[in-house]
TrEMBL record:
Superkingdom to which the source organism belongs: Eukaryota
Name of the protein in its database record: Gap junction protein
Domain Connexin cysteine-rich: 134-201
Molecular-function GO terms, alphabetical: gap junction channel activity
Gene: Gjb7
Family assignment from sequence similarity: Belongs to the connexin family.
Transmembrane stretches, start-end: 21-39, 77-97, 118-143, 178-203
InterPro entries: Connexin, Connexin_CCC, Connexin_CS, Connexin_N, Connexin_N_sf
Subcellular location: Cell junction, Gap junction; Cell membrane
Species per Swiss-Prot/TrEMBL record: Columbina picui
Self-association state and partner proteins as the record states: A connexon is composed of a hexamer of connexins.
Membrane-protein topology: Multi-pass membrane protein
């Protein structure tokens, strides 16, 4: 898979973001996308081939692997990365709509199409809420699917067609667990950044509305 589209998307969103939003883009691009492409993807590349059980019963190893890893870590991370970046398209589309509207009317309708105010503010807040919600959903999904944020060295399996309880061994569990903690930590950091930006924009807009009312009252 080529990650060029996601990189271009994040670069486009960066133009219309606040300072906190630009930090979020940097965290996603450097600490999530690059780490995923450069390191994490290679660690889980041969996870099925390196999953070994102490029995040669046909089908047992495949069934045990499917039971303990119902969805590949690496594919779930890729899906998470795509999903949490997608809501940013709402902002890009809204700005493009504003620019197209100005071209259609052949006059300036906004102080700047990229200014976060009016309808674009609602779109931006919606994108932040969606990104935060998706981050939380994926963290819960990880926790439920893998029984916590850990990678055990040995897993015991007694599912048919295994004749009895067998021990299965996961390769490089410590290295995998370190990267798992790192990616969970960056996901939590992105949640904090999204909530901070959401609070900042709501506070800023509230102050702006209050000042407008105050000035009208004084006049």
């Amino acid at each position: 898979m080529s990650w060029g589209f996601l990189r271009d998307l994040l670069s486009g969103v960066n133009k219309y973001s606040t300072g906190i939003g630009r930090i979020w883009v940097a965290v996603v691009f450097i600490f999530r996308l690059l780490v995923y492409v450069v390191a994490a993807e290679n660690i889980w590349k041969y996870e099925h081939d390196e999953f070994e059980c102490n029995i040669k019963q046909p089908g047992c190893e495949n069934v045990c692997f499917d039971h303990f890893f119902p969805v590949s870590h690496i594919r779930l991370w890729a899906l998470q990365l795509i999903m949490v970046s997608t809501p940013s398209l709402l902002v890009v589309f809204h700005v493009a709509y504003r620019e197209n509207r100005e071209k259609h009317h052949k006059r300036r309708l906004y102080r700047s199409p990229g200014d976060i105010d009016g309808g674009l503010l609602c779109t931006y807040l919606t994108s932040l809420i969606l990104k935060t919600g998706l981050e939380i959903v994926f963290l819960v999904l990880f926790y439920k699917l893998y029984n916590g944020f850990k990678v055990p060295r040995v897993v015991k399996c007694d599912i048919s067609p295994c004749p009895n309880t067998v021990d299965c061994f996961i390769s490089k569990p410590t290295e995998k667990m370190i990267f798992l903690y790192f990616l969970v930590a960056t996901s939590c950091l992105c949640i904090v950044l999204n909530l901070s930006e959401l609070s900042y924009l709501v506070f800023k807009h509230s102050i702006k509305c209050y000042l407008k009312r105050y000035i009208k009252r004084c006049q």
